[in-house]
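Final report, closing paragraph on structural work. Over the funding period we assembled a curated collection of sequence-structure pairs, and we close with a single example.
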Amino acid sequence: MSKEVLRQYTNGEVTILWRPDACIHSGNCFTGLPGVFDPLERPWINVNGAGTQEIIEQVKNCPSGALTTIMNSEIRNNEQ
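Its predicted structure, as stored:
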């Protein structure tokens, strides 16, 4: 049984969650928002490359669901 890999990238306001095993490499992320998603860079996600709302809207275009977002305020509220 393998453990699911989950990577997290945050700008303090929003966190991008990436599940590499679910990624189908459609390219929607980096063609739609290349300032944030650049597969040639490491790390390949620069969460400071665009505004929070732009990131959220682009991540919604991920066809596989490998990319999702969560507002950090939701994370803090769940920890209380």
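The helical segments are 28-32, 52-59, 72-79. The chain has one domain: 7-72. We thank the funder for supporting this effort.
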